[in-house]
Amino acid sequence: MATPPPKYNAAQVKDLSAGAAAGDAESQLKLGLAHAWGNTRLVRQDWAAAAAHFSEAAAQGHAEARYWLAMCHREGLGVPGGGDAVEAAKLYGLAAGQGHPGAQYEIGQHLFRGDGVKKNVQKALEWYRKAAAQGDAEAQFRMGECHYKGAGVARDLVMAVQFYGAAAAQEHEDAMYNMVGPSIRGLHSSTFRLNVSAFCGIGGALRGCLGGVQEVLGGIRGCY
After folding, report:
1. What is the CA angle 3-207-156, rounded to 5?
2. Over pLDDT 70: what percentage of the chain?
3. How many Å separate Cα 216 from the centre of its chain?
4. Mean pLDDT of the chain
5. pTM of the prediction?
6. pLDDT value at position 184?
């Protein structure tokens, strides 16, 4: 899961509970996340309670709550009947339409695989692009994969490295590996010469976290 919520003290839990009972969507979300993580002795992990609070906030149109409730349905956590890809895709789609980057990536995944929705690679790519533009590392990595493999788009190694680099700069492990892997090292030197500007920013961004970047971008050391 994502970053765990704060460890609330007794007074904070009381306030959140009161807010949730009064219908405050943000309090419902926060209390749901506390139950999902179960990160304090005051709020034990309870996925049924988490899903119930997410549902309350989602019913009010809260995008983050819709995202988490979708995850509950996808994974079958705290919801009746186990996993439900159709309901998950529906909720991800609602949150994605509200601009939630994580939901945009996830509905892209559902569309790409045809999971709970009719498969549509082009629509999946549209959502990946939107999420990637907001800095979602998973979406950036997926766009890199699509460009590298030619999945739904023309194969374009330069674009692949741009997206891999953006994700790797956020320490996305698979993207970091791909940036120093043999598939990228094998790019023709002419590709580097013709597209130096596309790689300059990547070299600087990754310098602190990827020891192998010097080898990968050796041909354009002068950029950074």
Report:
1. 85
2. 80
3. 26
4. 84
5. 0.81
6. 62
The token pair at 141 is 């990595």
Q: CA-CA distance, 224 to 28, in Å (whole number)?
A: 47
List pLDDT tens digits, range 48-67: 999 999 999 999 999 999 99
Length of the chain: 224
Break the chain into its structural domains and give their ranges.
Answer: 143-224
pLDDT digits (tens, 9 = 90+) for 147-168: 999 999 999 999 999 999 999 9
Q: Which strand (E) or helix (H) includes residue 4?
A: none
C-alpha–C-alpha distance, residues 177 and 168, integer Å: 8
The Cα 82–Cα 84 span in angstroms is: 7
C-alpha span between 85 and 102 (Å, rounded): 16
- Checking if the pLDDT of 94 tops 80, the result is yes
Whether the CB-CB separation of 8 and 42 falls below 8 Å is answered with yes
Give residue 187's pLDDT band: very low, low, confident or very high (50, 70, 90): low
Give every CB contact of residue 215 below 8 A, 6+ residues apart in sequence. 180, 185
Q: What is residue 45's predicted lDDT score, i.e. its pLDDT?
A: 93
> CA-to-CA distance for 28 and 15, rounded, in angstroms?
11
CA distance 210 to 189: 21
Tokens 């709020």 belong to 43
State the DSSP string of 147-196: HHHTSSS---HHHHHHHHHHHHTTT-HHHHHHHHSHHHHTS-HHHHHHTH
